[in-house]
Design a protein that fits this description.
- The chain is of the alpha+beta class.
- It folds into two domains: 194 residues, 2-Layer Sandwich (Gyrase A, domain 2); 78 residues, Elongation Factor Tu (Ef-tu), domain 3 (Beta Barrel), CATH 2.40.30.
- It contains seven helices and 17 strands.
- The strands form three sheets. A six-stranded mixed sheet has the order 8-9-10-7-1-11. Strands 12-15-14-13-16-17 form a six-stranded antiparallel beta barrel. Strands 3-4-5-2-6 form a five-stranded antiparallel sheet, with helices on one face.
- A hairpin with a 5-residue loop joins strand 16 and strand 17.
- It holds the Pfam family GCV_T.
- InterPro entries: GcvT/YgfZ/DmdA (IPR028896), GCVT_N (IPR006222), TrmE/GcvT-like (IPR027266).
């Protein structure tokens, strides 16, 4: 039986594969960019064909709704949520928009699905899906792909990930065959199928705990998502007029390192010298044997790295925690050459 620590080690050292369960959205029609610009916090004006980018979608009140991947493939735009959102919530959100006339929106289009694989050897697994040197697929690029033993399948391979390690995502209209092929390619690199806990720990160490934890009810400026907003487009997309620009006085989410085995409950106060300076938001799975990693909302200036703070663990004992920089672990992919 594999553990979360096994999965963590796999993603950090070889390559881990996992199915994407979030609903895909296909958007077609001549007005699709105008439609996307109604709700994405960055414009589609300069988006290139055969690319993928991350974008933030807001609610009417300016709170974050979802982080999505936006693919441009042929004559269609595709969206794939990165943060937790149900098909029902996504359907309601898109249906409430005042869509232009020449737009067709398909949520969870029949037959389509996705599989992802990440790790320092992910590039070697990705090579099984293309007929050219895989080093030619640059970061945020998308290319047509072949699915071994499923010649009739349509597929696209994107170089995009969630962990700071090499990452690839395979879209296919035969997702079962695509997933089987991805698993086979990953096993050939001494990788493995991985579960959500080990993956979430690597994501959190890369500074993207939001993928697993969601937004915890925080506004954009406290959730440290202001970098995903085009502040020159205020008034042009849903919820933008309610946004608040972050300042040096703004509370923000921060990573805290804690002793191995310490467990904290969301909502627990974080203190400095006995005075509350923040609140625990989420704790990453205990998949790295070196330390625990906690996400907290801290008042200014206590979010700067290297501060010794404290929080009561689930047993009620005061426990030292320390603000840390991210990425917390240097990705092995940074020194692994694609060849």
């Amino acid at each position: 039986m594999r553990t979360a620590q096994d999965d963590y080690t796999t993603v950090r050292t070889t390559v881990g594969v996992y199915p994407i369960t979030a609903p895909l959205v296909r958007i077609s029609g001549g007005d699709r960019y105008e439609f996307l610009d109604l709700f994405l916090a960055k414009s589609s004006e300069y988006v290139e064909p055969d690319t993928v980018r991350e974008a933030l979608a807001l609610n009417q009140d300016g709170s974050p709704f979802a982080i999505v991947l936006h693919f441009e493939i042929g004559d269609d735009s595709w969206l794939l949520p990165r943060t937790p959102v149900s098909t029902e919530a996504l359907t309601g959100y898109l249906a409430a928009l005042d869509a232009p006339s020449d737009v067709t929106v398909e949520i969870a289009p029949e037959g389509w699905g996705a599989t992802a694989f990440e790790g320092p050897q992910a590039w070697a697994a990705a090579a099984a899906f293309v007929e050219f040197d895989i080093s030619g697929l640059t970061l945020h690029g998308v290319t047509e792909a072949v699915v071994p033993e499923a010649d009739a399948a349509l597929a696209h391979l994107a170089r995009v990930g969630t962990t700071g390690e090499y990452g690839y995502l395979l879209l296919s209209n035969d997702p079962e065959a695509g997933h089987r092929a991805a698993v086979e390619a990953v096993l050939a690199q001494d990788g493995a199928e991985v579960g959500p806990e080990g993956l979430a720990r690597v994501q959190a160490e890369a500074g993207m705990a939001v993928y697993a934890a969601g937004f915890a009810g925080l506004p954009v400026h406290e959730a440290d998502l202001a970098w995903m907003v085009d502040w020159n487009r205020i008034g042009e997309f849903l919820g933008s007029e309610e946004l608040v620009k972050p300042t040096a006085e703004t509370a923000r989410i921060t990573a805290l390192a804690a002793p191995v085995g310490a467990a904290f409950t969301a909502g627990t106060p974080v203190t400095a010298g006995g005075q509350q300076v923040g609140t625990v938001i989420w704790q990453a799975p205990s998949a790295n044997a070196d330390e625990e990693l906690v996400v907290a909302l801290l008042d200014a200036p206590f979010w700067v790295p290297g501060l010794e703070l404290a929080a009561d663990n689930q047993d009620g004992a005061a426990t030292p925690v320390r603000t840390v920089t991210q990425p917390r672990v240097i990705a092995r992919s940074l020194t692994t050459r694609i060849h």
